[in-house]
Amino acid sequence: MISTQRLIDLMRAVREKKPLLHVITNRVAINDSANGALAVGASPIMAEAHEEVETIAAISGALELNIGNLTPYSIQSMLLSGHAANQAGVPVVLDPVGAGATEFRLQTVQKLLDELDIAIIRGNAGEIAALAGEDWGAKGVDAGEGDGDIVAIAERVARKWHTVTAVSGAADTITDGQQTYCIKNGHPLFPYMTGSGCLNGVIQAAYAAVSPNYLEASVAASVNYAIAGQLAGEKCAGPGSFRQQLMDELYLLTEEKIRRYAAFEEVARS
Amino acid sequence: MISTQRLIDLMRAVREKKPLLHVITNRVAINDSANGALAVGASPIMAEAHEEVETIAAISGALELNIGNLTPYSIQSMLLSGHAANQAGVPVVLDPVGAGATEFRLQTVQKLLDELDIAIIRGNAGEIAALAGEDWGAKGVDAGEGDGDIVAIAERVARKWHTVTAVSGAADTITDGQQTYCIKNGHPLFPYMTGSGCLNGVIQAAYAAVSPNYLEASVAASVNYAIAGQLAGEKCAGPGSFRQQLMDELYLLTEEKIRRYAAFEEVARS
Amino acid sequence: MISTQRLIDLMRAVREKKPLLHVITNRVAINDSANGALAVGASPIMAEAHEEVETIAAISGALELNIGNLTPYSIQSMLLSGHAANQAGVPVVLDPVGAGATEFRLQTVQKLLDELDIAIIRGNAGEIAALAGEDWGAKGVDAGEGDGDIVAIAERVARKWHTVTAVSGAADTITDGQQTYCIKNGHPLFPYMTGSGCLNGVIQAAYAAVSPNYLEASVAASVNYAIAGQLAGEKCAGPGSFRQQLMDELYLLTEEKIRRYAAFEEVARS
């Protein structure tokens, strides 16, 4: 069982080590992803040029790959940086945005999973279900409302690709295929902030950069991000103020807030 | 004459149907466009890859094409998705950003108008005047200050391309070439928010997705967006807070607010 | 010695002339850069298409080139627009984002500096040090913490490329290689806002568009931007609210605020 103290230690480790994060992401989420990374204490660099992605990935604390706006050029950027990261022992986080929306996205994600060693996959239920070959009624890049057992699906994905799988939603599910955690922090305004899932993926990368135990890293990142959202949501009237307040709360997160609000537990394997 | 009740019904229809919106837009406005779409209740997907744009356009409630950052690749994305949308009966909204700024933009817009069946064209006065071959003194992507009869110009554009034309400005003009509406809601801070016109175009698409009467859809989208801006502006000191508050007000729009604030009227044909 | 009155005159000149700014920048900063340009009174256009960049650069008040997200296509856009601007006497501002991070960025910046006549180079200490061939311990796109004499380095860069060099940091250093100014306004939240340096570069361009004395333009832009940040910071709890408030303060800047807060001085040449 991961302790609340561990979530606090990892939050501090990100702030102290200020890991360089190499992020290749979509144009919608790129600004919030950079601001959120800065807010938790990391140092993001959003580089896609083939001439430099290998160099940057190899010296980074973590690499985050997000398929929200694929082009032939960016797919190649992801493969080049991913191989360089794997070679250098730099953890790679994958965000399979809209994997259930088109065959093209699903095939690209599968290619990335087949070629690269992925530390953490973070997606919504529709995306993770797509990786498992399950129908989830996803609509575009939004989660959809499937009725399968998302815990079982997440564990299957984790075991198949030897990775930690983090499923974001009203409650988050984090699993390495052996141990599984459920996180109950969060706020209903999250889905109204475009790229809030993408930013979650970047924060997973920030925590993976400071902990070789990726299950712990993912649980800590998820709880801390969800607490910031919960506190932001309590101060907001709508999605515009939520987005701004979320950035403040990520920056203002403290040991005391984590102790007071963290709501997570280990769940029995499905 | 369109009734205020109709504006309310369409606002509700967007929230209930949560239409998938396929948006191909510029890098400046892309984040606000996605957040604004979510705030009104739609589900945006910003896809440009040639491998998937046809699939996504065909299953969407509407397609929105914005030429703010053209590349050879994105022009092809627009044509592929536009033809797929036309084929599937999905309405297409076109935003001719900066059409008066360069010959290249004007030619691209004309190509899109010639090849595709466009439900609604939304632009500022300078852009719509450029489509009509009128000089409007536009500067870059800003409207400029022409002294022509914008109602007559808008009606000409609408009739030429068999489309609804929505001209945004201090007052908005919406016409299908037969019936013309003038909308007086809005706020002087709108032009200080980059991409506020682009977001207007996306909201036009959200409403077109729920109403086959595109004149009604465009008037409803325009009035409701302008009311949200008016309410946001009253609470703000400058453009930074306006932008945030606008997103909140789009989300918080109610039947009561529409009844209280809607200021639109049919105008005689020029 | 530049007077405070001159800072005020240039702020007003930007608002009165509303210069068209042609900006080629990275995807992270592009939205804030456009909003910030609007907030100070300029009219930004973010055009990259090869078919139109020369036309737009030639009619603009200034051109700003930012290398934050290089692609082969955007490098060519920068060269085409840069040559057109030089030909037309339009000042060009260069922002060498992450020049110290990879050999690829450094070579690209040097190519731009060799081929184009640059009015102002704006970067953080790590970036300017990289141009001077100094090691500064830069990490990615963040400044790093070198211990060289940044004034001497900035003067060297200014003299080598016959340009004004503006180094942003806790204090800013602005020099044309002969006269050097130090600016002490600012706020510790600036580095937590991604693209805050990029926006600084755009504001340098807005001021260069209204003053052929680029040293004055750069000092005025830097002081006014730093005052806006200082006032924003005093009202904020974290980086999310800082970003919003900064846009408001740029828009709300007055003669009185500049007189009250401007903190800059000429320093002896190193």
Automatic annotation (TrEMBL), chains A, B, C:
GO terms for molecular function: hydroxyethylthiazole kinase activity. ATP binds at R122, S168. Gene3D superfamilies: 3.40.1190.20. Its cofactor is Mg(2+). Coiled coil: none annotated. It catalyses: 5-(2-hydroxyethyl)-4-methylthiazole + ATP = 4-methyl-5-(2-phosphooxyethyl)-thiazole + ADP + H(+). InterPro entries: Hyethyz_kinase (IPR000417), Ribokinase-like (IPR029056). It comes from the Bacteria. Pathway: Cofactor biosynthesis; thiamine diphosphate biosynthesis; 4-methyl-5-(2-phosphoethyl)-thiazole from 5-(2-hydroxyethyl)-4-methylthiazole: step 1/1. NCBIfam families: PRK09355.1, thiM. Catalyzes the phosphorylation of the hydroxyl group of 4-methyl-5-beta-hydroxyethylthiazole (THZ). This is Hydroxyethylthiazole kinase. It comes from Sporolactobacillus shoreicorticis.
